[in-house]
Design brief:
Belongs to the ABC transporter superfamily. There is one protein chain. The strands form two sheets. The chain has an eight-stranded mixed β-sheet with strand order 6-7-8-3-9-10-12-11, with helices on both faces. The longest helix is centred in the middle third of the chain and has 18 residues, at 190-207. Helix 3 runs parallel beside helix 6 and helix 6 runs parallel beside helix 7 (190-207). It is globular and about 65 Å long. It is built from twelve helices and twelve strands. It folds into two domains: 3-232, Rossmann fold (3-Layer(aba) Sandwich); 251-331, no CATH class. A hairpin with a 6-residue loop joins strand 11 and strand 12. It is an alpha/beta fold. The structure holds iron/sulfur cluster (SF4). Iron/sulfur cluster binds at residues 252, 289, 291-292, 295, 297-298, 302, 307, 321-323.
């Protein structure tokens, strides 16, 4: 399959602290190598502080890439995202869009829904008349199940699910190819989440979009994504087709995340391995395997040597753990 975005050794570092002696570099994303296939629904999971939002922002050029490479390739178009600037960056902004996290905070209360959705077209100069803008707004609004009456109202008149549909229409109005959805259903009730997820899947198929779906919630990812990558402290620790990952996770961190999903099977309860403690601060990272401070299987080697992603048994399944092979054998 075609790859739309390919990252190699990608890092994003922020300078924190002031003065000559207090400066520190916080590596929010560290040495990430990953491929996102065209037309896929790619899930990125991890706890807050894992770097997943920063990785999504790096692919949107919303934060500077400070190391490694990322390439966007679509037909004739090929952009180096670490270097992209000027007219190429302007073109990329149309192609890559973000659906915001919080539909309550993201929409201006003083603008009508029509104006909220139309704004990116006007800012990017993508239409040449008000009539053309209106036509495009109506077209994308209808795909997001918003009618003409909705377009005349202000966002406060809408429920959470409807507001999220307004955010989605706004993100898609410029006809992007790549969309980052960052915790796009986290603020919604579970029953509404399913509606929004179904809409995203429908839009992906109809419009041929590639999605990067960022979530802390593995059960949401399971129902939506084709491929999942798990992040911990800025690193990818495991990546696999969704089904493979759900049937045979190999990294102790991924297994612990799965254990946190409540099981419907009564025989399953109580056997789950709990994820103890907090994710360490990115400014004070553990040596070796970054997960060793919380991993029940850590040995001395884990404290000194950082594991790299290696191919596991199934196609597209990769894991970064020194002990994944031994841990597959039941005790
Ligand atoms: Fe645990 Fe060691 Fe594997 Fe890290 S490398 S996940 S500490 S067993």
């Amino acid at each position: 399959n075609d790859v739309l975005i390919r990252a190699e050794g990608l890092s994003v570092g922020f300078q924190i602290g002031k003065g000559l002696f207090n400066k520190q570099i916080l590596k929010a994303v560290d040495n990430v190598t990953v491929e996102i296939e065209k037309g896929s629904f790619f899930g990125l999971v991890g706890e807050s502080g894992s770097g997943k939002t920063t990785l999504g922002r790096a692919f949107l050029k919303a934060v500077p890439i400070t190391g490694g490479h990322a390439r966007y390739e679509d037909g004739e178009v090929s952009y180096d995202l670490a270097e992209i600037a000027g007219p190429e960056l302007k073109d990329y902004r149309k192609r890559a869009q973000l659906i915001f996290q919080d539909p309550y905070a993201a929409l201006s209360p003083r603008m009508t829904v029509r104006d909220i959705i139309a704004e990116p077209l006007e800012v990017m100069g993508l239409t040449s008349s008000r009539a053309e803008t209106d036509e495009r707004v109506r077209e994308i609004a209808a795909k997001c199940r918003l009618n003409l009456e909705h377009l005349r109202r202000f966002p406060h008149a809408f429920s959470g699910g409807q507001r999220q549909r307004i955010s989605i229409a706004r993100a898609l109005v410029s006809d992007p190819k790549f969309v980052v959805a960052d915790e796009s259903v986290a603020a919604l009730d579970v029953s509404i989440q399913a509606d929004v997820l179904n809409l995203l899947k429908e839009l992906q198929r109809d419009l041929g979009l590639t999605f990067m779906f960022i979530s802390h919630d593995l059960s949401v990812v399971a129902h939506t994504c084709d491929h999942v990558a798990v992040m911990y402290l800025g690193r990818l620790v495991e990546t696999a087709p969704t089904r493979t990952l759900f049937e045979g996770a190999k990294h102790p961190y991924t297994k612990a995340l799965f254990s946190a999903i409540p099981s419907l099977d009564p025989d399953d309860r109580g056997t789950a391995q709990k994820l103890e403690g907090e994710i360490p601060s990115p400014t004070n990272q553990p040596s070796g395997c970054k997960f060793h401070t919380r991993c029940p299987y850590a040995v001395d080697r884990c404290k000194s040597e950082e594991p790299v992603l290696e191919h596991a048994d199934a196609a597209g399944h990769e894991v970064a753990c020194h002990r994944w092979r031994e841990l597959m054998v039941p005790a």
